[in-house]
Amino acid sequence: MSTLINHPSIPNRQIWAAVGSMAMCAAMLIASEFMPVSLLTPIASDLRASVGMAGQAISISGLFAVVTSLVIPSVTSRLDRRNVLVGLAGLMLVSLVLIAEAGSFTTLMAARALLGITVGGFWSLATATIMRLVPEESLPKALGVLYTGNAVATSFAAPVGSYLGGVIGWRGVFWALVPIVAINLVLLLVTIPSMKSERSQGNGNVLSLLGRPHVASAMLGVMLTFGGAFAVFTYFRPFFESYTHADVAELSMLLLGMGLAGFAGTYGASAIMSKRLYHLLMGLPVALAAVTIALLPSGHNFWAVAALVIAWGAVNAAIPVAWSTWLSKGVKDKPENGGGLMVASIQLSIMVGAELGGTLLDHYSIGATFIGGATLLILSAIVVGNGRRLQPRAE
Question: Fewest CB within a 10 Å sphere: which of 169, 187, 200, 374?
């Protein structure tokens, strides 16, 4: 693959400024996509919807992200990569304004659909863009910068959103994101150099990878794992309110503890990944299911819940690290197609998981939601097994 770093007109400082702008975009996307998790109750009340219906705002963005991640490589094949990324950031900006001004549940869902297009498009193109921006020896550092934006938003979006929602209202939270995203859009336009699309190397349709048995098994494992996790994660606020009776300050503390624990989970998983990859792919969802179930009998004790939520955050953060590592080993010959398929699988699982959790919450109870999520996590561990079915036949 060619790289722009050798072009004499592009200074090194601009290259890293571009990487930083993309990391900022990643942070804004994560914050925008998952902010409703900490604001479900007030959003539902204001728009006269059930909490389960409000949770579908997570689902609809996932649906559009799935479709986008599968089609955007061919749709944008002749377009300048910079213009595509700037356009996606523009869609995010429009989405945030529509969410903040939403007068009905239908408007909210339409705005979240636009956000889903941005999510699917950005993450499908992000790694390939970074690979074209920096030389091969700097790629790990550049990807680390990109995913730092992801980690920061994952840690702070929910607790900050919860706190600010109590101060300025849920609409104010989304309005607060608008100027930040506008600045990010300008930075992307200024820092990312013109990146004319490279000619296709004939990698074929993204879905063709499912013809490989080990990839099909892995994607099933991915969907069950992330689906189970998001069936639970999406509805943590109703659990904290109904079981733990947490006020806004306590809720923010719980979500912040969960987010900060993610740094420890990411670091711990990375330290042992090379030797224990398949053990982690099977063990992490089992551990997450166990912690989820343990929350139910402990739900009325704030400090017990706090300890379990911290454990939940650490385990959950290690899961995408494990699956990303599998991707680098399991689809070495077609990493971009594999990445697109992974994005689609994860986003589809978010959609299905949030829908399942909301349905169980509306028709049964929050306990049923947690049990349903835990069941999917256990099924994912069964699919992974000892890891043999996830390994290419050549191994």
Answer: 200
What lies within 8 Å, CB to CB, of 370 at 6+ separation is: 232, 239, 292, 293, 295, 296
Q: Is the dihedral of CA 305, 311, 312, 314 positive or negative?
A: positive
**C-beta of residue 332 within 8 angstroms of C-beta of residue 209:** no
Tens-place pLDDT, residues 7-60: 446 778 888 999 899 989 998 998 888 777 778 778 888 887 777 777 776 668
For the chain, where do the domains classified as CATH 1.20.1250.20 start and end?
A: 11-200, 203-395
This prediction has a pTM of 0.74
What's the distance, Cα to Cα, between the start and end of the chain in Å? 26
Token readout for 274 is 């090379």
- Which residue shows structure tokens 């590592």? 325
Find out if CATH 3.40.50.720 is the number for domain 203-395. Answer: no
Burial of 297 from C-beta contacts in 10 A (0-12 / 13-18 / 19+): exposed
Alpha-carbon torsion (345, 348, 350, 352), positive or negative = negative
From the number of C-beta atoms within 10 Å of its C-beta (0-12, 13-18, 19+), residue 391 rates as middle
Choosing among 3.30.565.10, 1.20.1250.20, 3.40.50.300, 1.10.287.470, the CATH entry for 11-200 is: 1.20.1250.20
3-state SS, residue 250 = helix
Q: Check pLDDT > 70 for residue 204.
A: no
Q: Give, to the nearest 10 degrees, the angle between helix 12-34 and helix 51-75.
A: 150
Q: What is the pLDDT confidence band of residue 342, given thresholds at 50, 70 and 90? A: confident
DSSP state of 102: -
How far is C-alpha 86 from the geometric centre of its chain's CA atoms? 20
